Amino acid sequence: MVHSQQNRDSATVGLAIAASVFIVLLTAIAAQAQTFQVLHNFTGGRDGANPLDGLTIDRDGNLYGTASAGGNQAYGCQNFYGTHGCGAVFELAHAGTGWILRPVYDFPSSSNGYPEYGVAFGPDGALYGVTNGGSCCGGVYRLAPPATICTGFTCNWQQTVLHQFTGQPDASGPSSRVTFDSADNLYGLTFAGGVYNGGVVYELSRNGTGWTENVIYSFGINGSNGEDFPSGQLAIDPAGNLYSSAECNVNMGCFYGEVWELQPSQQGWNESVLFQFNGFNGYAPYSGVIRDSSGNLYGTNSGNTGGGNGSANVYELSPSNGGWNFTSLYDYGDFGEDSTSALTMDSAGNLYGADSITGDGYIFKLTHSGNNWTFSRLHSFSGSDGAGALGQIVIDSAGNLYGTTTVGGAYGYGVIWEITP
After folding, report:
1. Pairwise CA distance, residues 41 & 25, whole Å
2. Alpha carbon distance, N-terminus to C-terminus of the chain
3. pTM of the model
């Protein structure tokens, strides 16, 4: 799946000869002829390499995402795949009947780079994201679009660092995309840092022309419930309550992970555990949760070590009489950790996600009909068309699905793909 350094160097040399290496214009294939197509093969150059998260879509159907490597080839930047470069933010825009990829920002150094999570649009139309670079801890950034329309293959958005994490008692290692509440406050998760060094939920609020950071909850062994390492999708409801998942600390009697809620109050934020996995119904819920309009939460976990075949599953948590009911919607039947991705729900209530362990991985759909859920594979990757789909899937107004793979593709650095209905 991941090419050797020699193969990467050869690919880079060959690609440098081609004048169109950074502008990829693809002719669309009719939906009735093919339901899956690769829209872009990452080259490891200015366009990026090894995207670890999925995409964001704007109202015009253009796609935005991050690549954990590639981009700026500054000395000292190398991700854990061994790929050089400090990372990039890219746009894949409609161009006639095809698509054109433009890098919109190259991270300049290891101290301000390694974007492992995708970007989100803020209320002001700018892109917001996180990096895992820095002297220890990573940070949060804003990318403002240029004043004029881009006509070349580079777009050069303007970056502003909103906050640089410092470890303890602050935060370290962003582990989610950012999300906004109705008052334009920004929230996110980190995998470490905080008072107990078990990760945090943080808030960034506007302060004049700047931003003020506040750690609203610290996880760790000395915390009330023994949670550690929150990660994945962070959901927010109309009342401003936050929801996601975390691993647990065995020294605190919390073995398999949990789903939690944070409620704002005049005294601060109150944390409560909504559901704790027991090993038979799952463990290690890395992907966080999404929320539907009825208040139900959906997520994935990495496996059920206590019984069955040790497989991962997709679950639903439904509010009921002051508590929460757990339902396993689908058992993957695949043994191994990290086999599931974040979920996406369409307007009909169907769920989409990815399995990244079985072979080169696959994209699935869970069709919702009454109280039943029907599983179907939409596409199985073969390596040459991508491998290791980890990130969030997005859906356009026509029902087309878009996502990324971390590796595989023509050059081994991952792809952007489309599945048409």
Report:
1. 11
2. 28
3. 0.88
